[in-house]
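Technical annex, item 7. During the second reporting period the consortium partners agreed on a shared format for inverse folding records so that results from different sites could be compared directly. Each record opens with the tokenized structure and is followed by the designed sequence. A conforming record, contributed by the partner at site C, is shown below for reference.
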């Protein structure tokens, strides 16, 4: 029998992950990941907006192109791939398949009808890989698991199944800690779901020295009189970094990972803020060191800008959990357990996360379970017939979806969260405002919960060929604008340094690195254009490779 391979893919808001699997043995051979998303924007709503205002076709081409380059790193004969499976949230899977996406953008039947948009069926399906332009055997079957409802995606289903949430008898919460944080609360036979736009800081983005969880990232720290950095090695495992005086950056003792830290991931930011609060070096919203910074390793630091970015994440996550409890009609004290999934949910110290509000304060047990989306896709590759069972499960779930964007409870709590983190509102005042709105109070004391770490990294098995990282997934989106004078104001104003300008015989050519670009949520390029000729939507896909350096 000739060798056959399978590939499982998780398309996340901040990056894509893939396994190669030997189908005969069902063993994982290799793993490859990206450290960014190729579509301009920093979160799922940015990607959705890009599709609607610019081009779904362009977004699809960007995602398929980066996926093909990722698959090439798996070190297998892609012509011998016969089975694939993909998992992700509804927006990412819609972009991947180049299908209608506007039904995910507007709440309410009236809004959809006014725009002539119909709900799309997002049931389980099997399609040929070649039809999407994937650079594998074109006859390979690509399995797509179902959404629970059109707005509750396959990744949420994966989160519920791989954590065992559906079998739990006690009140239990599960959250995928990422830019688009899916969460589900099980109370009896009812499941309440929501998705909080937690912001890019949870993944280390919009942080000055931030990065995704990959080798060289400071992912945690232990603190007492000095702070011991924890840095991810080439196998994505945290190892001892330097012992640092975080008020000055002085190295007290070099660790195994000395000289190897290149940035800090979201979990490291959480640990630094939690530790800063515990040691009274941070009193929201101020960092009370002499220079207003928490110093880590290799010149990496966290400043007030980073704190405020992280605070948005803390507020959105706690407001989401709070809102689900309110809709379910239960108190914090009635919530027994929680499951944390995703890279941030794996690498973060759960007790430090609880300190900053990312975990409810009164839990008994917390389980850290890794990347459930990639795990489900891998299950499907190994056993394709489970796709029918997944559809049955999705159809059977009694789900109550809460649209946080339009929910009054969420709005009320989130406003108090911003006041708490960004203005220093005391907890007493926070709770007084909630009482006025007939919302339960946030418990003032944190109960130390039992933490069960089921995996050591978010991707537990890398395979005997190990991990490959596609760092440069940029595709140039480019074009020229009549009337452009080449003043470079757009390039100077771009916060992500994603733009370059090249003179041509007929004028100036604009190049934008798609994976660095903030997309339609930013548009500082347009706003800063002195001649008002820069039109982001008129840019077209160009060459593979970065237009600018990170």
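Designed sequence (site C submission):
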């Amino acid at each position: 029998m000739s060798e056959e391979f399978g590939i499982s893919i998780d398309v996340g808001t901040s990056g894509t992950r893939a396994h190669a699997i030997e189908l005969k043995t069902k063993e994982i051979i290799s793993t490859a990941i990206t450290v960014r998303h190729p579509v301009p924007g920093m979160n799922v709503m940015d990607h959705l907006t890009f599709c609607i205002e610019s081009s779904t076709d362009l977004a699809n081409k960007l995602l398929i192109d980066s996926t093909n380059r990722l698959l090439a790193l798996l070190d297998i004969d892609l012509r011998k791939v016969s089975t694939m499976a993909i998992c992700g949230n509804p927006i990412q899977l819609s972009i991947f398949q180049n299908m209608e996406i506007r039904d995910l953008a507007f709440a309410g039947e009236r809004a959809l009808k006014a725009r002539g948009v119909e709900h799309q069926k997002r049931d389980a399906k099997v399609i040929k890989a070649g039809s999407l332009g994937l650079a594998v055997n074109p006859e390979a079957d690509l399995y797509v698991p179902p959404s629970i409802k059109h707005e509750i995606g396959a990744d949420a289903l994966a989160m519920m199944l791989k954590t065992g949430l559906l079998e739990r008898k006690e009140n239990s919460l599960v959250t995928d800690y990422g830019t688009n944080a899916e969460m589900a609360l099980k109370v009896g036979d009812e499941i309440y779901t929501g998705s909080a736009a937690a912001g890019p800081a949870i993944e280390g983005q919009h942080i000055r020295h931030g990065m995704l969880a990959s080798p060289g990232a400071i992912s945690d720290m232990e603190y007492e009189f000095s702070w011991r950095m924890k840095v991810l090695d080439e196998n994505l495992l945290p190892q001892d970094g330097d012992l640092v005086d975080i008020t000055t950056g002085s190295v007290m003792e070099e660790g195994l990972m000395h000289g190897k830290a290149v940035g800090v991931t979201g979990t490291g930011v959480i640990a630094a803020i939690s530790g800063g609060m515990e040691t009274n070096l941070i009193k929201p919203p101020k960092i009370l060191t002499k220079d207003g910074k928490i110093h880590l390793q290799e010149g990496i630091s966290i400043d007030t800008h980073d704190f405020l970015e992280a605070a948005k994440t803390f507020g959105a996550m706690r407001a989401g959990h709070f809102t689900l409890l309110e809709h379910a009609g239960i108190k914090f004290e009635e919530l027994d357990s929680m499951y944390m999934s995703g890279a941030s949910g794996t690498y973060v110290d759960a007790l430090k996360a609880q300190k900053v509000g990312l975990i409810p304060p009164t839990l008994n047990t917390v389980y850290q379970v890794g990347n459930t989306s990639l795990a489900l896709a891998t299950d499907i590759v190994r056993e394709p017939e489970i796709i029918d069972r997944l559809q049955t499960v999705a159809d059977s779930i009694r789900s109550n979806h809460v649209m946080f964007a339009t929910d009054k409870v969420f709005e009320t709590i989130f406003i108090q969260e911003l006041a708490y983190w960004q203005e220093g509102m005391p907890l007493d005042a926070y709770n007084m405002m909630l009482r006025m709105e007939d919302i339960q109070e946030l418990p003032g004391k944190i109960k130390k919960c039992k933490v069960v770490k089921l995996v050591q990294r978010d991707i537990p098995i890398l395979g005997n060929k190990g991990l490959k990282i596609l760092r440069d997934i940029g595709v140039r989106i480019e074009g020229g604008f009549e009337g452009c004078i080449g003043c470079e104001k757009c390039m100077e104003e771009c916060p992500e340094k994603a733009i370059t300008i090249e003179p041509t015989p007929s004028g100036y050519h604009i190049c934008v690195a798609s994976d660095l670009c903030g997309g339609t949520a930013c548009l500082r390029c347009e706003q800063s254009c002195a001649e008002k000729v820069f039109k982001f939507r008129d840019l077209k896909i160009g060459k593979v490779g970065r237009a600018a350096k990170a």
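Residues 546-550 have pLDDT under 50 and may be disordered. Residues 343 and 458 are 5 Å apart (CA to CA). All partners now use this format for quarterly exchanges.
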